[in-house]
Fold this sequence. Notes:
It is elongated, with a radius of gyration of 17 Å. α3 (about 85-95) runs antiparallel to α4. It has a single domain (about 5-190), classed as Maf protein. The protein is of the alpha/beta class. It contains six helices and seven strands.
Amino acid sequence: MRRLVLASQSPARLALLQAAGFAPEVVVSGVDESGATGTPTEICLSLAQLKCRAVVAGLSAPDAVVVGCDSVLELDGVAYGKPKDAADAVARWQLMSGRTGILRTGHCIVVGGRECSAVASTVVRFGTPSGDEIAAYVATGEPLFVAGAFTIDGRGSLFVDGIDGDHTNVVGLSLPTFRRLLAELDVSAVDLWV
């Protein structure tokens, strides 16, 4: 069986892959995300590629399947990653409240020196939580560690009115995109199941 390596420290991405029947090994890339520039699509794609390539460079298994991802929330053409602190998370929620954004996740997969990448996009319709609800949510710490300062698979789901598109993408890794990229590299996703 091929070794599947997740180039991400995201517990949500790991849990998503595990729930889908995979047992990835986690190798954190150590890529500095602070200098990324460009459009939201360019930012998430370039960071996914950098993370994936950094992990590949440190592996001694040439046939390993390495997947790197990075997510940003696009609102009014601006990319929002993880908030800097609690005050930033509150400000984000005040900005997002009652609005629609696009969660974009860059995906990069490398197998045997071959690379494929793509960006998956999902429209997110935010609810209108009260100031007290926003403060309570931020106090849990959950929004401090995720792109866009919200989750759809945790407490933040209370404040998401709906989505248009792939819900796994909003979690942080689009499983349909993952399967398609693997197929482009002549790897069947089901062959990676445990």
